[in-house]
Design brief:
By secondary structure, this protein is α+β, with helices and mostly antiparallel strands. It contains 11 helices and 22 strands. Helices cover 29% and strands 41% of the residues. Strands 14, 15, 16, 17, 18, 19 and 20 form a 7-stranded antiparallel β-sheet that branches. The N terminus and C terminus are likely disordered.
Length: 501
């Protein structure tokens, strides 16, 4: 028993770490962001309720027979609505004192009197209370996993027109009661379909695991279910890049976990050092952190200086004196990112190999020197893409062979730094120009972005706006119904024959 207890104590720290992996990317949506979502969501709910399909209503009471068909919502007034966070995983959408105007076709038979026409009706005091449960699915995508709904109608009125309006107006109770029941029964199924099917199709547009370029991809899968307080919703994403040549590769996260405390903006996105380290590690694993300059691509001033520096070696190779130079810059280890309140930097270790390349002969190496550089990184948003602009801050070269050779290379320090600034850095920044998309649904964009550095992570605070409506995005990805399904979904035309009543 004692041995088992000791073993449990030894395993406990690893079990805790495994159950709560730190995110590389974290998103916080504040109550201000939820207010914007409510405005767009309310328009979407109005559209869904206006498309409610109510089945035909028919029946009889004594000598009074009726058939109601072609029910259509003509107007919708949502006087009061609210969307709130509800701990731990829920959103509550509440509509009170709404009204729904209807128009439908009537067929009425009272003794020997038969009448057809239309009826205008209104449902008042409509109350809808829905609770959406948010969770991550098996793929790590945010989904509406469950919905509870309660709908009620306080009052309903119907206005008749036609020759028999005064005769059977008092019998309208049967029709109004039936329509009130059918309408209230259709509200929740309509909203359930809108949430679990249509809104989930919108969430499918959030990138989870996709390719950034031809070399690497990004994994934005959720690590756990969302965490909801009364004021915020937080999502913990894996935020790990991977090389496309080894997509199953996992890089362990030892970075500081981002902590978002701000609530002034609609949304905050935090990125830890792990997020950027995994990107550079993936590029290193993909074998693309190498740049080669040869012949005319080597700046003329630098070529003259290099030939003068290695004159003795070149002179001993008399047949190769006029051979072109080749410079190969190769990163020797995955670069590391450091984020501090004062700024973001990237440390890079590399080898610079300088060779002569005689025609039809093997290359002749003149020198192989080590380089240590520190780059400053400016992180910013452009649209929904996170981009990084790099600039050379510090640079040092030294020989891997001897201290004496390192001293001889001192004269190359300044020109090689210029080479990096004017030739190499533009190439690197061009490669990172595209950036990587932040996990937001299609149609939702950032505005008024502000980047803030912290110890071990940075945050991007922004407001949101909808460049596309929810309906527009949903319709874009809605499956096209087949002809058979379409024809079977059409309501049947009402009979005009009194005998069918």
């Amino acid at each position: 028993m004692a041995a088992g207890g000791c073993l449990l104590l030894l395993l406990l720290p690893s079990l805790v770490t495994a159950s709560h992996s730190p995110p590389g990317c974290k998103i916080r949506i504040t109550s201000k962001g939820l207010d914007l979502v409510k405005q767009e969501g309310l328009r979407f709910v109005e559209q869904e309720l206006q498309n409610i399909t109510v089945s035909d209503l028919h029946g009889s009471e004594g000598q009074f027979q009726y058939n109601i068909s072609q029910v259509k919502v003509t107007d919708l007034q949502l006087a009061y609505s609210d969307l709130n966070f509800q701990p731990q995983q829920h959103l509550v959408f509440n509509i009170s004192n709404a009204s729904i105007s209807l128009r439908f076709r009537r067929q009425l038979l009272y003794w020997f009197f038969y009448d057809i026409g239309s009826i205008n009706a209104s449902a008042d005091g409509v109350h809808i209370y829905t609770v959406l449960q948010l969770a991550k699915d098996e793929a790590g995508r945010l989904k509406i996993s469950n919905m509870t709904c309660n709908a009620s109608i306080a009052r309903m009125h119907a206005g008749f027109s036609g020759t028999l309006r005064k005769v059977y107006e008092f019998l309208s109770t049967f029709i109004v009661t039936g329509m009130r029941f059918l309408l209230s029964q259709q509200i929740c199924p309509s909203l359930e379909h809108a949430s679990l099917v249509l809104l989930n199709s919108l969430l499918d547009t959030v990138p989870v695991r996709n390719y950034v370029d031809e070399h690497i991809g990004i994994d934005y899968s959720l690590l756990r279910d969302p965490s909801i307080t009364t004021d915020t919703l937080e999502l913990d994403f894996k935020g790990m890049f991977f090389p496309r040549v080894r997509e199953d590769q996992e890089l362990e996260n030892h970075a500081v976990e981002p902590v978002i405390k701000e609530t002034e903006r609609m949304v905050y996105v935090a990125f830890s050092e792990y997020f950027f380290d995994s990107a550079m590690h993936s590029y290193f694993q993909a074998g693309v952190l190498t740049i080669e300059l040869q012949g005319e691509k080597v700046p003329k001033d630098l070529e003259v200086l290099l030939r003068a520096t290695f004159f003795g070696t070149i002179f001993m190779l008399s047949p190769s004196v006029d051979a072109p130079l080749r410079l190969v810059l190769q990163v020797s280890a995955p670069p590391r990112c450091t984020i501090k309140p004062s700024g973001t930097s990237v440390s890079v270790s590399a080898f610079l190999n300088i060779s002569l390349v005689p025609p039809d002969r093997p290359p002749v190496q003149l020198s192989s020197m080590a380089m240590e550089t520190k780059l400053s990184a400016k992180v910013f948003l452009q649209g929904k893409a996170l981009r990084v602009q790099l600039d050379l801050r510090r640079f040092r070269i030294y020989s891997k062979q001897s201290a004496l050779e390192s001293l001889a290379l001192f004269s190359l320090q300044a020109p090689l730094k210029t080479l990096l600034q004017l030739t190499i850095m533009p190439i690197i920044n061009e490669r990172t120009k595209k950036g990587v998309q932040i996990p937001l649904p299609e149609g939702m964009d950032f505005t008024r972005e502000v980047v803030t550095n912290h110890a071990g992570f940075l945050t991007v605070g922004a407001d949101l706006h909808f460049s596309k409506g929810l309906r527009e995005v949903i319709e874009k990805y809605r499956p096209v119904p087949t002809a058979a399904a379409y024809s079977s979904s059409q309501p049947a035309e009402p009979s005009l024959d009194p005998s069918s009543l």
